[in-house]
Sequence to fold (80 residues):
Amino acid sequence: MFFSLPKILALMGVIGAVWYGFRLLEAHRKSRDDAAGDSAGKDAGNTQKKSGPLDLEECRVCHAWVAGEACTREACPYSS
Fold:
């Protein structure tokens, strides 16, 4: 049971086809979710949270990393 060039190329082709198929499915799902989210966002008034990275800042008072929201401390620079 030795590996030969045709077997290796066939295996690479199968792996590539499966990988490409998953990419197509993911792109299709994302475009469908974006289209559904656009129509729901207009009607619902943007009640959905955005999924993505948050910009964290270090609080000057308690030195905790916050996302620009107020904490429970009295001298919090983010409190309103």
User: Anything to note?
Assistant: The radius of gyration is 24 Å. The beta strands are 57-58, 65-66.
